[in-house]
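Hi R.,

Here's the chain you asked about this morning:
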Amino acid sequence: MEENKEKEIKENLAIKPQKESKLYILLENQIKSNIFSISLFLDFFIIFIKILVGQYGYSGEHDPPKYGDFEAQRHWMELAIYLPPEEWYTNSKLNKEKYWPLDYPPLSGYHSYILGKILNYFIPESVEFKYSHGYETKIFKNVMRAFALFFDFIIFHIAIHFFCYKVFIKDKINKNKKPLYMNYLIIQILILLNPLMIIIDHGHFQYNNIMHGFFVFAAFFSLSDKFLFSIIFLSFCVNYKQMGLYYALVFPFYVIKKLFFSEDKKNIFISLLLIIIYGITTVFINGIIYWPWIKNDKLKDVFNRIFPVKRGIFEDKVATFWCILNIFIKLNKKFKNNVLLKFSLVLTLLGCIIPIFAIFKSKKITKKIIMQCFFIISLAFYLFSFHVHEKTIIVPFLAFLLNLPYMKNILPSFTLIGMFSLFPLLKRENQIIPYYLINVIFYLVTKSMNRFMTKKKKEENKYIFIFAEIIISCIMIGYHILEYKIAPPEKYPWFYPMINAIICFVFFFGIFLYSNYSLLKIIFKDKNK
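And here is the predicted structure, written out as tokens:
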């Protein structure tokens, strides 16, 4: 009995091997003593990295007539300030569907409106209605990059600081355990420095980290059992970009579990009352966001735009189930879009079964379980849902990062294959140098920091993951050499992007299966205790 107690104390204190203990303790103490200044330095360092990435190309640079996502963001600002909100999603001569229609939910539109007003004051020619298409001056590029950095910092960076502080310091102190200052810093670095989100938002150019910041705040408040705030930020997340729905399914099941089936559940009447309050809050927030379209009976226009069923189950060569299946069965020729939509819905929900089962089956919902559920469900949406873009891999990847240090041995290989899946897109946008550089830098950072991340038990199958890293690295190197040296067949210009999609799908699906297996192991091990 005494031996077991002593063992448990050692695990809780995360005692490191003797050869690492002095260095580990020294670093831990330095972080503890200078936690604010170190976090601030980290923010500025990562912003500097993002600025460097932003010096290279962006989506659609000097590529008329439609340009790319950079022009889409600019054009939405133009539309937002010259058209009333109820016309933002309605096709007309002034709002042509063929030229970058606003296809994100209303919070993106409101964001575009605010930025459009600022630009209209300082650089009016950049948003001049109908005459500013393809506006690409150097000053304007830098201003747009600065907008992305600003919102990234005030929403995403701050959300990550709050989340990591709660999980690795505050919660540990509340449970009379040793705060994990090293984990607090390292996991912030791995999340904020991750190359996928940097290259998409600050290279390709988008504002995904606003959505991600809202999600992290929603997860933070959920883990704190402050569900009302969680609902508010989840509503912001989903209504900024529809990909936020990849995260949304976990929240209602988690709330139901906590209110009705957990060990510390409340009185049944109080729980029912809280559910009603949460439901009313959700309806109220969404009602305010969509009011201009509700008032003018134009909600249908909004949903037709943000859920583009008519564009098909997939567009480009993406590492999803449907794109790979299309090699063998020409889906668009054999099935109508509405049928494919139903297939996609069923398969996506089937991919979410194990995490939902885990939420209700587990005796106690821990951070490890809930964040793994977020990851598996968001990855299921990426693999099986309707009309997924290659950029969308950043959605499950963030959920994976929030689950560290658990499954930390997958991080190097998952990052490599995630970045590899973006290569065809980045190649078109003059982001090759940042692709190689931040890929290598992040891989080295990950490998060096993995050894300092503390967790109660060593992860199993360590050498399998090392072998996977070697395989992935060899495949990537071989692919890049062939792609650089040998042109694709004239008949199949999409040959290399398709090969890329097949390779990435195999690895993503393997990670999906392994994650489900790991979650089931946790649940049944917990049940047998």
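One quick note: The radius of gyration is 24 Å.

Cheers,
M.
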